[in-house]
Design brief:
Length: about 110
């Protein structure tokens, strides 16, 4: 069974997106919805939802040419696409299966 990774470091996320870690920290100050968890020593721990948001921010600012204000506005009015909704449903189904397996082992 493949192990699912729940948290990613800022280095891992910056490599995924091809941007500097400093840009990720800056975007945290500009986008209120982006709030990765921080450990006791201040290291950021990004969840998949954080990474998904960062990908949308990156797409809007770097690929579509939106300003930060424009990107914020787009994020506010954007509704989930049907394939995103389906992806959430599939993730929840697999999580349910995993939890049922764990319950059986207990």
């Amino acid at each position: 069974m493949e192990e699912t990774k729940y948290y990613y470091t800022i280095t891992e996320v910056s490599e995924m997106l091809g941007v500097n870690a400093s840009l990720l920290r800056y975007w945290e100050t500009e986008f209120p919805a982006l709030r990765p968890e921080k450990t006791k020593n201040g290291s950021r721990r990004y969840k998949q939802t954080d990474i998904d948001l960062l990908r949308r921010i990156h797409h809007l600012t770097k690929e579509q040419g939106y300003t930060l204000e424009g990107a914020r506005e787009q994020l506010k009015k954007r509704k989930p696409e049907p394939e995103e909704t389906q992806q959430v449903v599939e993730t929840l189904k697999s999580l349910r299966t995993l939890l049922e397996e764990i319950r059986e082992k207990l």
